Fold:
Amino acid sequence: MAAHLPRTFYARPAPAVAPDLLGHVLVRSRPDGSRLRARIVEVEAYEPYDRASHAFGGSTARNAVMFGPPGRLYVYFVYGMHHCMNVVTGPPGHGSAVLLRAAEPLEGLEDMARRRGQVAVRELCRGPGRWAEAFDADRTLNGADLVAGPDVWIERGRAPTDLLATVRIGVTRDAERRWRFVEEGSRWASGPVRLSVSRPARRARSRSSG
DNA sequence: CGTTGGATTGGCT
DNA sequence: GCCAATCCAACGC
Structure:
């Protein structure tokens, strides 16, 4: 099997780990022996001195995993109905993490689609809430070890040719930090994948139905 | 294809 | 009480 990313990979600041995660593959082993696999194309970094982070203000019952050792999964519940998956980074006690926002589904697509409902393959893991649902991730997965645990891990994948750093999505405080990292041009991402929106090449007169 | 608002729980002030 | 690291359907053009 492909090599897991080692603990040292995660033991760095979130804004350093985040872009390095692009291209690697999140794997979840299912009880029946099958696997879910998806290639990471979009992530966001959160640091404890950053008011957008759950860790801002210190450790609580909800965010305690963020303050534990790096290389664990931090799963939280939001908006009363969605879960989001994060990778804990930095030295123990630091309180930083990388939000997993979007991925290209590689294996177990039928399993994902069963939970996601009748949606296009493109929609299976495009967005943190969608990806968590596709991977059947809830708070029972909170704290799972990605390095030594048997259930979920990250293996090496093909690095992107180019990546883009933009502002984070849905963030209102400390919103100016460009800590969202996305594989440039990826059709699997949940937000902008280009620096500027290019004007549609509309020659002469446009046709009625475009 | 863009924008808008509702859903619905729980964490923290 | 307030509002959130979101998603989706409904609308208007």
